[in-house]
Amino acid sequence: MTAALEIQGFTKTDFEAFLAARPNEPAWLVDMRRQAWDRFEQLDWPARNDEEWMRTDIRMFHLNKFALPIEPTEAPSLNPGLLTHDVDLGGQLVGYNSQAASDSLSDSLASTGVLFGSLDRLVCEYADLLRPFFERHVVDPAKDKFAALHAACWSGGTLLYVPKGVAISEPLHALSALGDGGTDLSKTLVILDDGAEATLLTETASTSPTAGGLHCGSIELIVEPNAKLRYVNLQNWSHNVWHFAHQRATVDRNGSLQWTIGALGSKLAKVNQQVALTGPDADIQVNGVMFTEGRQHLSYNTHQHHMAPYCRSDLLYKSALQDRSRTVWRGMIKVDVAAQRTDAYQRNDNLMLASTARADSIPGLEIEADDVRCTHGSTSGRVDEQQVFYAMTRGYTRTEAIRLIVAGFFQQVFDRITIESVRNALGDAIARRVQDLDSAAAPQLEG
Question: Where is the signal peptide (predicted)?
Answer without folding.
Answer: none
